[in-house]
Sequence to fold (220 residues):
Amino acid sequence: MPGPTTSSHVMTAQQVRDAEREAMRTVTEPVLMARAADAVAAECESLLAQRFGRTHGSRVVVLAGSGNNGGDALLAGARLHYRGADTTAILVASQAHDMGRGECEAAGARVLEVSASDDAAALRAIEEADLVIDGIVGVGANPGLRPPADALVASIPASAVVVAVDLPSGLDVDSGAADAPHVRADVTVTFTAPKPCLVEQPAAASAGRVVVAQVGVPRR
Fold:
């Protein structure tokens, strides 16, 4: 199974989109997403073991947007729930990735649909989290966080480990700018190659340690 590796080859958002289209001529999107979710879940398990000594019983929160990053995060959350974590998936957009949501529900994870920044159940889950997976937006999004995601991200406690999927949500993927509200991650699991925001300062400071996972998309 493809796993994490290191890489100095940087790809822009457009290069990533082009490479993914090329890859999907021979590999289906669900397969690529499953590989991405495996890489995220494996990194989360390692972090939980290092920080708390366990996965079983750990409180994991997934912040999921409507796109494929949200789907990857939800799939990773489902895998962690199967492995004994207490997973809560918080859907921060009006729609959720169908496959990701379905796997979370099949695993028995709690799924919350959130339309307001003061949703009590969502805020409580975040405040009690041991680990938060950020899958709010991906490489195609504009910089910044919009409601209710901005308030939910602001409520993440300092004690929680934050793992970003592909890039910390809110950063401008193709630059080092970090002016807009964004997620500050301890670890970013990115795919295929680093993006400019993961290597250029000051944005890179919000990415934490960057893990590059090869999922079957060619580097350009």
In short: The first helix runs from residue 13 to 23. The mean pLDDT is 92. The chain is about 35% helix and 15% strand.
